Amino acid sequence: MTLNDVVLTPILPEAILLLTAILILLIDTFLGDKRWLTWIGLAGVVLAGVSAYRLALSEPVSFQGMAVSDHYTAFFRMVILTATALGLLVALNWLDAHGEQQGEYNALLLLAAIGMMLMAAATHLLTVFVALELLSLSLYILAGFERERATSAEAALKYLLLGAFSSAIFLYGMALMYAATGALDFAGIQQGATMSPLFLVAVGLLIVGFGFKVAAVPFHMWTPDVYQGAPTPITAFMSVGAKAAGFAAFVRLFVGVLGVEKVTWVPVLAALAVLTMTVGNLAALRQVSLKRMLAYSSIAHAGYVLVGLSAANSTGVAAVLFYLFAYAFMNIGAFAVVIALERQGEGDVTLSQVRGLAHTHPLLAGAMAIFMFSLTGIPPFAGFFGKLYLFQAAVQANLTWLALVGVLNSALSAYYYLNVTVQMYMAKEETPPRLHWRPVLGLVAAIGVLFVIAIGIFPQVWLGLAKLGMLALLG
Amino acid sequence: MVPLSWYLAVAAVLFVLGLFGVLSRRNAVAILMGVELMLNAVNINLLAFWRYTQPENVAGLVFAVIVLTVAAAEAAVGLALFIALYRLRESVNVDEIQLLKG
Predict the structure, then answer these.
(1) Which residues in chain B touch residue A224, judged by CB atoms under 8 angstroms apart?
(2) How many domains does chain B have?
(3) In sequence order, which residues have a C-beta less than 8 Å from that of residue B79 and are 6 or more positions away?
(4) Is B101 part of any domain?
(5) Does A258 touch chain B (CB under 8 A)?
(6) Do B88 and A161 touch (CB under 8 A)?
(7) Is A348 on the interface with B (CB under 8 A)?
(8) Which pick of A109, A230, A326, B76 has the fewest CB atoms within 10 Å?
(9) pLDDT tens across A172-189, in order?
(10) Where are the domains of chain A?
(11) Is A184 close to B59, i.e. CB distance below 8 A?
């Protein structure tokens, strides 16, 4: 094989994002005109989206056996590119207010997005590892982006130490998987997967590694601190993108490749799902910081997705994909409202700061209420159908008890989500919050509302796309 | 030739030493060193499996080289973050860095 044999087509969207990131850094360095950097990044995301769409129309193509561009990859490209576009947009005004490093911010965000997309495309443990590190290293830096704010630096430190630690455990699992199956590529692992003590240890370590990345209890300790301390636009981006990427590789490796040995890992994942949902929701109940509450809520949502993963059937995989797509809009939307509420230089919003918001900013409060309803899982919003499909899959897989735990947890979560709404609408405040109107945040919230409602009204359309992705994985 | 299990035993010991370092040390730099030990244990594993089970396929060897490279990148980012934190707090002790909790 020579270099000329390398065809870039299957990873063209990633290549476009990489070129965009380099272009942004060059413009930032040589022209010094920073106003257009976000828009160049957005143009790159749109171009990558177009090429991902064209790839999705053609037959699955493999990139040297390391990654594959199929419908499953295409679905996650859609989710991650959406999150990236919204992540670039929510940071626009924030970057203006926070100094000079616009080029670095936009370039690092795009690099993280490349890592996320490659994780979804990976068909080789080496690609999973490199993609994971690419996205993690970018996010470590972004989490500590506000260097002058101590909580941001602290978030970056905690994220880095626990992230590196979990990567090491994850890698040990990969090495043992290599020993147990004699292969590093997914096809070879599938052929070589047989029950043995070594195989079990490898599966266990891989679950721990993925558990860290998707913030499943008991591997979640970093999540609240990092989500609270990191700059809010970054929290919004990573709560959606990193979670989607982690689950993308998780589902492809476990359901797609290790599905034959699912008796070994389904009970473990079901137990993790119960723990994750319950601990996440219980901890969210007593938070005063809105960002920290949303961090625990994102842990709980990882638990719901784990329910679909534990089901390990075709309905479950389609439900996981659908849920991650719906989650992207409701969560980034909610964080856009948080950014709008943020006071300069504080990087955090308490629940009391939303008191009486509906009286001064009815549209913003309305959007936030819709996101909260959707996160709770109230029909007709996107979150309801996401949860419905996930729990349906669990019932089909004879895990009715797990679905019941999920439903009870949703009821529990209603308390803290609706509390935000109550504070906005019912509470009286002498000095209701007044915000600087920032059109871009309004745009992001509007996109979020639009999709949360569109997915809720036409769930079949989006579920159809998710099923296409599922078929690429399970045939 | 040294049997494969010896390599695996050394790697396992090294991994556990690294794990112990991560869990017991309070200084962020020392914790990062523990992580590096764990990564090197993985490298020994990968190379031993590659050499003993399928030396004709370079995948395991290449994996080890890439792990080394990524570990270096991780250390670079990590140390940069530690310096940024040290300038703010005059300490990189994880005990003393406790603004976020609850």
Answers:
(1) 100, 102
(2) 1
(3) B29, B32
(4) no
(5) no
(6) no
(7) no
(8) B76
(9) 999 999 999 989 999 999
(10) 3-474
(11) yes
